[in-house]
Amino acid sequence: MESAAPKPVQIAELRRMREAGEKIACLTCYDASFALVEDRAGVDVVLIGDSMGMVIHGGNTTTPVSVADIVYHSKCVAPFLKRAFLIADLPFLSYATLERALDASQRAMQEGGAKMVKLEGGREQTSIVEYLAVRGVPVCAHLGLRPQFVHKMGAMKVQGRDEAAAEEMLQDARMLVDAGADMLLLECVPSELGKRITQESRVPVIGIGAGHDVDGQILVLHDILNISPMVTIGRKPRFVKNYMTGGADIEAAIRAYVQEVKSGAYPAPEHCF
């Protein structure tokens, strides 16, 4: 007798996981083959990340990635996810105005098959988040290190280290959730700040270099497989762990990542700020 098909993860399930203290395992994905493997390995949330600009397209930043790129890769992934929840990045300047944000979101969801969009920025994005939310677009708001802002910020570095910056980020998180954000993503923030934001939040908080106390973790697929340009040239971010070490194959590596997120073994102290 065949086993029942897995129940697709939806926003309500992610909220239930948060409330139950069950960690949410997330990974980036860009094609059909890896979509099949990630879904089979138990990944809860898949992100069509603009990180493709570096790991797929070979660039130095995410800024050249277009809406068409996101839609194309999302269309490659979406049909092969039977369980995992699909989020698509809104790329650089695609949400510079309300109209552009709505158009990019419509394309990501209608053409690409995404169930949520992600955008970078703090309180300055609340009008965008609210505009999308009241029109039925689920939004993940990305705080902390924001790769699309690299040319403005000047460097990829940890954010929110001092108390003033931490308080500002806490307020940003509150305002974004009040505006209608269904999820928060924190990148490269001190563990204590990640904990504070998670404790105050009403929605799931996913971290990448944001400590152990967030509701879930996300990494770039190519980083955990030790094949991304950043890790191969010796610029591996602190929060990255190579899951190919000791792994029998790629699926085993992804399963190991999921298991360590679920058990709390990842991130270890050496992966945190």
Automatic annotation (TrEMBL):
<comment type="subunit">
    <text>Homodecamer; pentamer of dimers.</text>
</comment>
<dbReference type="GO" id="GO:0032259">
    <property type="term" value="P:methylation"/>
</dbReference>
<keyword id="KW-0808">Transferase</keyword>
<feature type="binding site">
    <location>
        <position position="89"/>
    </location>
    <ligand>
        <name>Mg(2+)</name>
    </ligand>
</feature>
<comment type="similarity">
    <text>Belongs to the PanB family.</text>
</comment>
<feature type="binding site">
    <location>
        <position position="118"/>
    </location>
    <ligand>
        <name>3-methyl-2-oxobutanoate</name>
    </ligand>
</feature>
<feature type="binding site">
    <location>
        <position position="50"/>
    </location>
    <ligand>
        <name>Mg(2+)</name>
    </ligand>
</feature>
<feature type="binding site">
    <location>
        <begin position="50"/>
        <end position="51"/>
    </location>
    <ligand>
        <name>3-methyl-2-oxobutanoate</name>
    </ligand>
</feature>
<protein>
    <recommendedName>
        <fullName>3-methyl-2-oxobutanoate hydroxymethyltransferase</fullName>
        <ecNumber>2.1.2.11</ecNumber>
    </recommendedName>
</protein>
<dbReference type="InterPro" id="IPR003700">
    <property type="entry name" value="Pantoate_hydroxy_MeTrfase"/>
</dbReference>
<dbReference type="GO" id="GO:0005737">
    <property type="term" value="C:cytoplasm"/>
</dbReference>
<comment type="pathway">
    <text>Cofactor biosynthesis; (R)-pantothenate biosynthesis; (R)-pantoate from 3-methyl-2-oxobutanoate: step 1/2.</text>
</comment>
<dbReference type="GO" id="GO:0000287">
    <property type="term" value="F:magnesium ion binding"/>
</dbReference>
<keyword id="KW-0963">Cytoplasm</keyword>
<dbReference type="InterPro" id="IPR015813">
    <property type="entry name" value="Pyrv/PenolPyrv_kinase-like_dom"/>
</dbReference>
<keyword id="KW-0460">Magnesium</keyword>
<keyword id="KW-0489">Methyltransferase</keyword>
<keyword id="KW-0479">Metal-binding</keyword>
<feature type="binding site">
    <location>
        <position position="120"/>
    </location>
    <ligand>
        <name>Mg(2+)</name>
    </ligand>
</feature>
<dbReference type="GO" id="GO:0003864">
    <property type="term" value="F:3-methyl-2-oxobutanoate hydroxymethyltransferase activity"/>
</dbReference>
<dbReference type="Pfam" id="PF02548">
    <property type="entry name" value="Pantoate_transf"/>
</dbReference>
<dbReference type="GO" id="GO:0015940">
    <property type="term" value="P:pantothenate biosynthetic process"/>
</dbReference>
<feature type="binding site">
    <location>
        <position position="89"/>
    </location>
    <ligand>
        <name>3-methyl-2-oxobutanoate</name>
    </ligand>
</feature>
<dbReference type="GO" id="GO:0008168">
    <property type="term" value="F:methyltransferase activity"/>
</dbReference>
<feature type="active site" description="Proton acceptor">
    <location>
        <position position="187"/>
    </location>
</feature>
<dbReference type="InterPro" id="IPR040442">
    <property type="entry name" value="Pyrv_kinase-like_dom_sf"/>
</dbReference>
<comment type="function">
    <text>Catalyzes the reversible reaction in which hydroxymethyl group from 5,10-methylenetetrahydrofolate is transferred onto alpha-ketoisovalerate to form ketopantoate.</text>
</comment>
<keyword id="KW-0566">Pantothenate biosynthesis</keyword>
